[in-house]
Design a protein that fits this description.
The chain is of the alpha/beta class and 243 residues long. The chain has a domain of 93 residues: Ribosomal protein L1/L10, domain II (Rossmann fold), CATH 3.40.50. 32% of the residues lie in helices and 15% in strands. Strands 4-3-5 form a three-stranded parallel beta sheet, covered by helices on one side. The protein has a two-stranded antiparallel sheet with strand order 1-7. α4 links the parallel β3 and β4. The chain is extended, with a radius of gyration of 37 Å. Belongs to the universal ribosomal protein uL1 family. One of its GO terms (cellular component) is ribonucleoprotein complex.
Length: 243
């Protein structure tokens, strides 16, 4: 309702205001904000669904037939797969065409099925495997924990980078000694507990074949072996050869 302010002059306004019926605002709903929020939420959900449908509709599905020419759009056809012998032959052929180094590494991606019956997730882990054919001249540095002089001599003869007992703990904690792997004999394990948090997954363990009495076998595995890691996506990405 318009009411006059001091200093304003409207002829006959007072009579019109007194004669006009009193105006009342209609009753408001109990919770108007809740209803508005629900409407907005429904609208946002519909918008998301429409956007999802648009995205799905624009997806490119590959064709089943093989391409005729050497140049084609890859997303229109299924990705080809080859057996090992043919794939290696193609790598060698491409190496000559691309003028790349003949000793370049060959990598492999392994996708693991980590599903269990109890639906428990398998945590990422690392392991070492000894391949039948070595493809590099590099040797890993391995430290052997033992306090037996005879075992220490065997470790040195088989290529251990560092051999010793509890006197090495201080140097390892201060990062004065850094090697690729650590192996140990069972007799010294109670004295290596201070290194558990430092070495973490490299801490000697029977599960990883880094704890035992066969020092030459452990040294061969960790000096010449290939370490691989299984990440959260259950994928192994590692090099396995040279072209």
């Amino acid at each position: 309702v318009l009411a006059p302010r001091p200093g304003w002059f409207f002829p006959g306004l007072d009579q019109r205001l007194s004669a006009a019926p009193a105006l009342r605002s209609p009753a408001l709903p109990a919770r108007p904000y809740t209803a508005a929020a629900r409407t907005a939420k429904k609208g946002s959900q519909r918008t998301k669904k429409e956007e999802t449908k648009k995205k799905q509709g624009g997806r490119r599905w590959p064709l089943m037939s093989k391409p005729v020419d050497d140049v084609y759009l890859t997303w229109y056809y299924e990705r080809p797969s080859y057996d090992v012998e043919k794939a290696v032959g193609m790598l060698k052929k491409f190496q000559e065409l691309d003028f790349t180094h003949p000793k370049q590494y060959v990598y492999i991606n392994v996708f693991l099925d980590m599903a269990l019956q109890k639906k428990k997730k398998v945590d990422p882990f690392a392991s070492t495997v000894l391949l039948p054919h070595r493809f590099t001249d590099e040797m890993n540095k391995v430290l052997v924990f033992t306090e037996n002089e005879q075992e220490a001599e065997i470790a040195r003869e088989n290529g251990a980078a560092v051999v010793g007992g509890v006197e090495l703990i201080k140097w390892i904690l201060e990062d004065e000694i850094q090697v690729d792997f650590y192996v140990a004999v069972p007799a010294i394990m109670p004295k290596l507990i201070p290194l558990r948090s430092k070495l973490k997954r490299k801490y000697p363990s029977t599960k990883r074949n880094s704890l035992g009495h066969d020092i030459p076998k452990m040294l061969q595995l960790y000096r010449e072996g290939l370490e691989y890691t299984v990440e959260d996506e259950s994928i192994i990405e590692t090099r396995i050869a040279r072209v």
